[in-house]
Each structure stands twice: as C-alpha cells, then as structure tokens.
Amino acid sequence: MAKKSDVTLHPTRNTMSENTRGAMVGLLQKHLGTAIDVTYAAKQAHWNVKGMNFIAVHKLFDELHEKAEGYVDEIAERLTALGGQAVGTVQGASANTILEPYPTDLVDSEGHLKRLADHYANWGAAIREGISEADDAGDDLTADLLTGVGRGVEEALYFLESHFQSK
C-alpha cells in the first residue's frame, strides 16, 4: 500500500480515513499510468499494423484504444474523488505504468497482437492484486471500479488471444 506521505491529498468530505485515501490514490495512480500506456500502445498498433487481416486488426486496435481511454477517465475521476491529483501526462504515465515499453518498430499484425496480449495480461494480473488491496483497505468502491476495468481488460485479452487459439 502507498503511504500517506507518498501522496498529496486535497481536502474532501469523503469519510474514508486519510491514510486509506492516500493508499488508494497511490494504487489508482499506478493503474492510471498503466491505462494511459495501454491506450496508446493500442493506438500505436492501430497506426502501424500491416499484413494479413489488416482491416480486422486495425479496427480491433482502435476499439481497444477507445475502451482503454474510457478506463483512463474512470480511474482518474475516482482518484480525484478521493482527494488525489491525477497525473495523466505522458511523462506521468511513463513514470507510473507497470508495463514494459511498447516497441515502436513493430509492424506485423501477429507481433502487435502478441505484444498487446502481453500488456493486457500483465495489467489484468495487477488489477486483480489491486482489487485485493482495495478490499483489504475497506474501499469497496475502488475495488468495484477495478473489477469493472478488469472485466474489460480480460475481454480484450480474449479478443487478442483468439487470433492464436485454433483448437
């Protein structure tokens, strides 16, 4: 859990303890950075994909981008509702993401599908840990938010992995 001293909180009438709010803001900031990272990894793939099934994966990557962009907004709004300051710049996302950098020289559809699947799988695992952390802290609303995001992330992973599963 993030410590209260790690995060500056704005005054709020939210009745959760300051320590819990600080910890949840820290948790949510990590997921905000990761959501922004995933959003633009999907867009990077959308812009640069080439090869067989181009139009299908081009459209899929754009849809993944749009959905992830929605997660960015949901996470940032929860973070700020707890009194936190959302760090949503490119530099902030880069500092807070849990993911490895997305390659900028990738063009083949299979490579993009596999790399995005890795991103979604890693983020999904972190989301499950975050749900447990929020539950342990007694923050049902953050746990619920992460559960909803997690459902979408796992659906995206299913869409990506379906390109490789044939049996």
UniProtKB/TrEMBL annotation:
Residues 27-165 form the Ferritin/DPS domain. Transmembrane segments: none annotated. Coiled coil: none annotated. PANTHER family: DNA PROTECTION DURING STARVATION PROTEIN, GENERAL STRESS PROTEIN 20U. Belongs to the Dps family. This is DNA starvation/stationary phase protection protein Dps. It comes from Aureimonas populi.
